[in-house]
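ARCHIVE CARD
Drawer: 12
Card no.: 0347
Subject: one protein chain, sequence and derived structure
Cross-reference: see card 0346
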Amino acid sequence: MLMGCAVHEDAQLAAYLPAPSYKVSLPIPAALKAIFQPTAPAPKDLASSLDALIRNFSGVAGVSVASVDQGWLISANGERKMPQQSVSKLWVTMTVLDAIDQGKLSLDTPVSISREDFTVFHQPVAALVKNGQPYNTTVADLIRRAMQMSDNTCNDKLLRLVGGPEVVRDFIARRGLGPIRFGPGERLLQAGTAGL
C-alpha cells in the first residue's frame, strides 16, 4: 500500500491543530516471490491500440499494462530496457523511507541545497538558492519536492544522502520489487540526455 500525506505550509494554522493522540501503523507485506504472470489474454482492441501508438510515435517508446484483477498483461516494446525518467523518484523515496525506518535518517534530518547540487533539467528548488546562500531544509521537504514537484535536484540530493544508486538497487532487490533497473541518478542521466 502506498500512502501520502502533507503538512500544513502555514505554521500559524498548524499551531492551532491538536497533536494527534494516536499512531497509524500498517503491516509491511512480504516481498513478492515472483513477477506477475498473466493467466488470461489481454483485450484484442487494447493490443491494436498499443501497437498503433508505438508505430505512430516518432521516438522510441515502450508500454506495459497489467490487469491484476483480470489476470492479463500486454506490452509493446515491453522487454526493451529504457530509462524510467521521473518514475525513478519513487525508488529513491522508498529507499529514503526505508533508511528512516532503520533509524539511519529522520524526516527532520537537516539538508542544504547549493548551486553545486543543481541538475540539468526541472529543479524548482533552484529558485530558493539566492545570493550564493544555500537553501536549508529537511529530508521531509526534499521528499515532498521530489514527489509532488518532480524536482530533479531534490531527488538527486536524496539519492546521494541515502548512499547512491547502489543502495537503491539493493533496496529494490531486498524488497523483491522485480527486474527494475535503477540508473545513475539525475545528474548523470540528464547530462547524457542533454548530450553533455
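Annotation on reverse: The two ends are 39 Å apart (CA to CA). Residues 85-193 form a domain with the Beta-lactamase fold (CATH 3.40.710.10).
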